[in-house]
Amino acid sequence: MSDQQEPALRLKGIVKTFPGVRALDGVDFEVMPGEVHALLGENGAGKSTLMKVLAGMHQPDEGQIIIAGKPVRMTTPIEAKAQGVVLIHQELSLVPEMSAAENIYLGELPLKRFGRVDWTTLFERSNAILKRLNCNFRGEVTVANLSIANQQMVEIARALTVDARVVVFDEPTASLTDAEKVVLFEIINDLKARGVGIVYISHRMDEIFTLSDRITVLRDGAYRGTLTTADTDEDEVTRLMIGRSLDLSRDTAEHSLGEVVLEVRDLSCAPLFKKISFSVRAGEVVGFYGLVGAGRTEIAETLFGLRSPDSGEILVDGSPVQINAPADAIKLGISLVPENRKEQGLVLSMNCRDNMTLPQVQNLTTGPFVSSGAEIAIFDKYRDKLEIKTPSWRQTTRVLSGGNQQKIVIGKWLSMHPRVLIVDEPTRGIDVGSKSEIHMLLRALAAQGYAVIVISSEMPEVLRVSDRIVAMYSGQIMREFTAEQVTEDSLVQAISGIRTSEVA
Amino acid sequence: MTNKMRILLASCGTLALASAASADTVRIGITQNNVGIDSYQTTYERAFIAAADANPDVEVIVLDAGGDVARQISQMQDLIQQNVDAIIIWPTDGQAVVPAVRNAHRAEIPVIVTNSNIAEAGMEFIAAFSGPNNIQQGIYSAEMMCDALEGEGQIVQITGMPGYTTAIERQQGFDERLAEMCPGVTQLDIQPGDWNRERAQRTMETFLTRFDQIDGVYSGDDNMGVGALNAAIAANRAEGMVFIGATNFAVGYDAMGRGEYWGSVYQSPVDDAKAALQTALDVLAGEDVPKLNYFDTPKITQDNMEEFDRPVF
Amino acid sequence: MLLNRLKAGGPAIAKQGILVAFILFMIVFSLMSDRFLTADNIMSVFRQSAIIGVMAVGVTIVVIGGNLDLSVGSMLSFATVLVVDLHDKIGPELAIPIMVLATLCLGAINGFLIGILRLNSLIVTLGMLSAIQGLVLIYSGGQNVDIVDQRGTWFAIFGRGSVLGIAAPILIFGLMAIIFHVIMSTMPFGRKVYAVGGNPTASVFSGIPRSRVVFTTYLISALCVAVAAIILGSRVMGSQNNVGQGYELQVLAAVILGGTSLLGGAGSILKTVLGVLMLAFIQNGLILMGQPYYTQWLVTWVVIIVAVWLDVAAKRGRLFSPIA
Amino acid sequence: MSNLTDITPLRWLMRNPIWGFVLLVFIFFSLMSEHFFDYRNFQNILVQTSTIGLIALGMTLVMINGNIDLSVGATLALAAAFAVDVQSWAMFATWGNWQILPAVSLALLVGILMGAINGFIVWKTGVDAFIVTLGAMLGIRGLVFVYTGESSFYAMNFAYSDFSALSVGPFPVLALIFLACTLIVHLVLSRTVHGRNTYAVGGNREAAVNAGIRVGPHMMVNFMIIGFLAALSGVLLSTQMGAATPNLGRDYELWVITAVVLGGTKLTGGKGDIIGTLGGVLAIGILRNGMNLMQVPAFYVYVILGSILIAVLFLDKRFNRTANGGLRL
């Protein structure tokens, strides 16, 4: 970055307070044209608030926003966009029943007289954008019929409707697989080459180090510093972010493996997966790695009684079992921590304790009444064990951080003393500090004798926690690796459907 | 083969007969107010169908508006569309059906209004009205109330469903006659009971709390009157209280027999229905029918109740 | 920080919006009419609200479970007509159980369509509202039904009797409210209803039999209607075919006024009781003040919106909605 | 603007099962009643359908928004009362037939105002529209009774009720107004920015906010549209009656919602269209008309309508099952 160049966007001393909270406390930030500037911070550090200020959804109480040298005021997202600032949201912000083109131009559909939509122009322009993004679908398609990755593309296409100066990506890869990420990174590099300033928010260190030029860190709403990516490393960034170092190495402490607890033989459920066979031993962590849609979640759901398999056998402790409902699975000691915490894992309106004891509430009774004492005992035990940070069991789970929410879900199943714990995307949307805690927890659980299955789309995660890794592609198991055998290359090949000779 | 032929011929014969017969029968359509809301209307409907069945020359199309004016207007349209010989209408609203009646009149279908009359503006379009005189019934009730209280006292009134003609007319007749006949009787309050015994009971309970002295209660029909009576008995205040209703129901008749209920207006749905059908037939026969055919709805009190049969509803 | 306190479910007076509103109303009415705060009047209002109250208990549970029940009005007509009609034909000792069973069957149909087949509850119960009204009319042939011997039947105790000076309907209402409050707040079943209403998917992922729970809420709703029908039939000793018409909306209004969220997962039976009493006191108070009956509709309009608004505002920590 | 590619009639019917149903009952009644398949009967059906139909048009917008309006029946009654009463105001006494003009205008304005009140409350308080309009349903009915003093108003002027009997060529004017409104609302919903935003707000409110759509005022406009249409429906109904009754429109909200849901609009918002709604109101209109002509006893009509509603809902769920891939939830 040459110094004489004007920043594409500059924030000076931004302060934003909400009743009782100082969400942003004098934050400075700038992004140069043609630069990828990563913004880092734990959940609650103020990233989202900063982004909303940028997108015109919040007004800062103090400070200045300077675009191309001129101070501006932006009171609506439309105004922000007109200034060339575009925000790509973390949660997909699309209307499923509308066409891709309408979604791309949502809020600013081209007009004819009498408020009519100018369909010709709309489709022309949006198709041009989609073409530029190498998308293999057209603007006329209804968004609900698109895959998640393509929906993400629609989201990204919004950035190209104006001559963007700055594009903000808020966790864009949260729902993308590695292969899809590659496409996204190409787009970002393309934007960059055209002199657009990119703000990139992510929890994933590997992405940040591949992609960014500079890194700015926020903590507790305050600016902590800006680093040049080439001159720093993960450890320094992490320390800036959470105030301490993290042990990122794999826990190699050996513990003995027990008997096979769960075995699956030729399990099929067309068209989701076919002929799946694997086994898990007590004390073992088996990682399932593959693209979204490879059938991993669906296998977990089948094991948990949420789907009926077409054929095949499930054996627990060597004897075949029938699992027709989650209650059956629970009885057999199989637990599932689902991939979508908020939709599948928790009843957000309920408090921590009630969520944790939900599966066994029928049995926690004295007489006909739920025994509050027994419930609190369970909650206290797992709060301590899992180090859940919450002021009281009365706290509704809605307000907890992602990491603590995930621990409540894990605690819910541990308190049932399962034999097999299936964990689907355990750290999605969870910040770096909590992520590493959850990884250590999974290892520790295995050491205590649980059979653990971890489903993940993040390679570092699978590599860190697993004793064995099962690679899946399109509903089939491609290969199994032991932790010693596995290399990143062979793993990527396996999940892309490339069969290699079975060499160690 | 021959068998089949015979059957075919036979059925042709019946068909021919049937159509020959239908040339002489008259088709009369009726659209009622709200069958099922109370026994009066249901009994009316049964009596009407029974009367029609008894007459081989009459074919009836029986419809019910469910209390909805708009639906009644649709039904009028449907009946005009079928080109019936005459239409009998029990107006859901005396005012609002006038244009529909006018349309029938224009289509040269005679309209007979039954039970409660339509508004003045519509009188020129109807062939005849047949039914009780609701205003007169209100007047009767007021007179009975006056007699019972001997011209002095405080009363409350529980009316039918607000906004419906019958309720409005009875209240009107009662209020006017009472004011004129015995100024010594004051009306403390008027609240609706929606033709519903339980709601009337609740209304009466509130009256009882609110007023220390209630000498008489006028209810828009006996069903509500008995509800009011129940409330007074439960509060131990029924003694000496005068209950007067209208449309004598079986429950009211029985209460009268026990001496708890003072009086009512005797109105037979069977007479009502028969009168309506007969009026329609008279009109169709070209007879000179008077515009207003009120059938008699006498006062019924504890004193003369032996003269009347116990109502069937 | 107030925001956090409110969110955390801490004790805040604003959360008790309905209670505050209730007390305010009682004060205003007692100033306007000296009859209002008399023992007689209060007892009479309690007694009058018993029927709606018992039904509201059932509907609250359905709503906490994330559904609606608009069929309770015509179900009440059905149950009342049935029990009164059978009373004189086969005697109350058989009439009551048969009526309860028949009403539970209707509840089971609701439960099957909504709980098992997962059809939308608003539309299903709307359809049932119409269908059951038709059933009642077909059953009774459109005739009113009456109990002839009103004084001599023990059936009278439910609507007209009293224990220790407290009218039976009040006792039944109180008992139903307490029983179901205890079930909902302290028993496993209650916990499951809250869970299913709060997040049906997560409940299934926790091994809760969602279909069965929803099914059961409709059975409870039907049971409450049956109990209400016993009070109503006994109180009136007769029934019209449309006796329950419009009750569904009054009941729903009471439930909403009690702060139960239509989204499911939150609500309380005791607060519903407050909602029921508040509506009853509004009606009663306005009549005592000599207002025409339609004034109560206008007042109810304002009260419902203000009460729910305060409730919603307390939950989000600001008075006005943040949406632009 | 859904998929433009390969829509066969069969697939279209699968997506709009209500039109299949309309076709079915149409054929059924044509065979069963000699009076049904008749040009004049079709006119009747259209006129009878127009009342519920007009409101259903507005309800479609409001429900696609993810809201609901239970107060339409009361609004209809209030507008009808104004339309009839204002004609007789002394200040318009010399206007002759023109006195209808201010009366109708005022009635429509009142409807828009009621809608605006509902919309404003929903916008500013964030209280669920179901609750807001449930309150308004009682309150506006209260206003009707305050205004009318419990009795019916009637129009002195027969010109007013003659309007309802007018025809343009073979089409009754009431049916024409309904069809014209249907076309307009259809175009608004499918072709204009406001209409497209209606889907956006209902389909993903967060996304709509992010895209800079002013959700609050947007919803308020739709409430004003339904207020207007309910008032128009009330005015047209009052021309058929030459009068306005205070109980007019009771329970209409339930039938309107039924029709709209039958037409495939989702209660959760984001999905639905006017073509489906037209099918929904016609289905109810034809059923009612046909059952009248066949003299189905009133008691059975309730059962039949209720059962059909549930059955169509069931079939719709079968045909348009959302793809959760056989997950047992």
TrEMBL record, chain A:
Keyword Metal-binding: no
SMART domains: AAA
First-listed, main subcellular location of the protein, grouped into a coarse class: membrane
Localization in the cell: Cell membrane
Membrane topology term: Peripheral membrane protein
Cited SUPFAM superfamilies: P-loop containing nucleoside triphosphate hydrolases
GO cellular component terms, A-Z: plasma membrane
InterPro entries from the UniProt entry: AAA+_ATPase, ABC_carbohydrate_import_ATPase, ABC_transporter-like_ATP-bd, ABC_transporter-like_CS, P-loop_NTPase
Coiled-coil regions listed in the entry: none
Domain named ABC transporter: residues: 9-245, 243-499
Keyword vocabulary terms for this entry: ATP-binding, Cell membrane, Membrane, Nucleotide-binding, Repeat, Sugar transport, Translocase, Transport
Keyword Secreted: no
Membrane-crossing residue ranges in chain numbering: none
Gene Ontology molecular functions: ATP binding; ATP hydrolysis activity
Name of the protein described by the UniProt record: Ribose transport system ATP-binding protein
Organism of derivation: Roseinatronobacter thiooxidans
Lineage: Bacteria, Pseudomonadati, Pseudomonadota, Alphaproteobacteria, Rhodobacterales
TrEMBL record, chain B:
One annotated GO molecular function: carbohydrate binding
One Gene Ontology cellular component annotation held by this UniProt entry: cell envelope
Signal peptide range: 1-23
Chief location: other
Keywords: Signal
Sequence ranges assigned to domain Periplasmic binding protein in this UniProt record: 28-287
Family annotation (InterPro entries): Peripla_BP_I, SBP_2_dom
Alphabetical list of PANTHER family matching this protein: D-ALLOSE-BINDING PERIPLASMIC PROTEIN-RELATED
The protein's name: Ribose transport system substrate-binding protein
Species name: Roseinatronobacter thiooxidans
Lineage: Bacteria, Pseudomonadati, Pseudomonadota, Alphaproteobacteria, Rhodobacterales
Automatic annotation (TrEMBL), chain C:
Localization per record: Cell membrane
InterPro entries: ABC_transp_permease (IPR001851)
Annotated keywords: Cell inner membrane, Cell membrane, Membrane, Transmembrane, Transmembrane helix, Transport
Keyword Phosphoprotein appears in the UniProt entry: no
Any one GO MF annotation of this record: transmembrane transporter activity
Taxonomic superkingdom: Bacteria
A single cellular component GO annotation: plasma membrane
Protein name: Ribose transport system permease protein
Lineage: Bacteria, Pseudomonadati, Pseudomonadota, Alphaproteobacteria, Rhodobacterales
TrEMBL record, chain D:
Main location: membrane
Membrane topology per record: Multi-pass membrane protein
Protein name in UniProt: Ribose transport system permease protein
GO cellular component labels: plasma membrane
Entry GO MF terms: transmembrane transporter activity
Domain of life: Bacteria
Annotated localization: Cell membrane
Membrane-crossing segments per the record: 12-33, 45-64, 76-94, 100-122, 129-148, 168-189, 223-243, 297-315
Record's keyword terms, sorted: Cell inner membrane, Cell membrane, Membrane, Transmembrane, Transmembrane helix, Transport
